[in-house]
Recover the amino acids of this structure.
């Protein structure tokens, strides 16, 4: 019989739940740019992935109410243009978005929790996130919101994890593998 001896020591043991999800823009740090008056777009100063600051003039709208002076469309937040929905010459009004601006330094990870695992998930739990683009790296965040309704078709509950993205490598729409720390067992015997 081939025996092997290993050291046993007291340590903490993390119990985890593995789920899938997707990276999403943080809607608390996202804004839409619309024209407050009806008119024609005569200039767009920014395009997708351009950085803007609060108050930057992102476009001009020619409108009869201002008697020849164009209406300035200004960025409501600091961020990056993530969508451009109009072109010069189009009609603009308050119901049509021209740009969508988002701050990419903090994103959401939307995790899909199976119905049978809902009781294990709590606000504030830590989560480790991996994406295909960076297979050797783990990104860390914590649960900030738990939905109150199970999706009828998939029988899953959406859980929102907030994650730092200061370097901008994570992109909205990426798929993610998520490991949520559901419980920490303190001082258990572990083989090292």
């Amino acid at each position: 019989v081939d025996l092997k001896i290993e050291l046993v020591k007291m340590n903490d043991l993390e119990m985890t739940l593995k789920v899938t999800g997707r990276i999403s823009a943080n809607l608390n740090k996202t804004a839409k740019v619309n024209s407050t008056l009806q008119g024609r777009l005569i200039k767009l100063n920014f395009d997708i992935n351009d950085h803007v600051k609060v108050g930057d003039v992102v476009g001009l709208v020619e409108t009869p109410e201002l008697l020849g002076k164009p209406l300035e469309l200004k960025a409501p937040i600091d961020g990056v243009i993530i969508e451009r929905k109009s072109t010069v010459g189009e009609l603009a009004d308050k119901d049509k978005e021209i740009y969508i601006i988002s701050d990419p330094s903090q994103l959401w990870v939307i995790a899909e929790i199976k119905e049978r695992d809902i009781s294990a998930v709590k606000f504030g739990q830590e989560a480790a996130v991996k994406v295909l683009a960076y297979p050797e790296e783990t990104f860390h965040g914590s649960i900030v919101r738990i939905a109150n309704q199970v999706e009828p078709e998939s029988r899953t509950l959406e859980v929102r994890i907030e994650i730092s993205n200061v370097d901008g490598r994570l992109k909205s729409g990426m798929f993610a593998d998520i490991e949520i720390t559901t419980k920490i067992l303190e001082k258990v015997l572990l083989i090292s």
Observations:
- Residues 38 and 93 are 4 Å apart (CA to CA).
- The chain is about 0% helix and 55% strand.
